[in-house]
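Late entry, zinc ion complex.
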Amino acid sequence: MGADGIADIHRGYVAGRYRDGAVSDVWTDVTRCAERTFVAYLARCRCGWLGDPHPANPDGYHTCQHELINNHSRGSRPNASSASPAVPK
Ligand SMILES: [Zn+2]
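Prediction complete; structure with ligand written out below:
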């Protein structure tokens, strides 16, 4: 099993949930959208993984980024969390 496929499948990003319930795609930079475009931010990955909704503000954005690293990458990318070790439940 090579690492190439994993890197391609797992592309994490912070998505925004629109008022109609849709979630933005990987090409949307939520930080550049108008302030009230989204009702929430969610960590999302191309593999289909979706994190919990967080407030659509800078704090929520950072929380989503941490979720990607600590919740999603755990197990699937053993070497990805050298800076902040994941805490098992
Ligand atoms: Zn993934």
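Helices lie at 4-9, 58-72. Will revisit in the morning.
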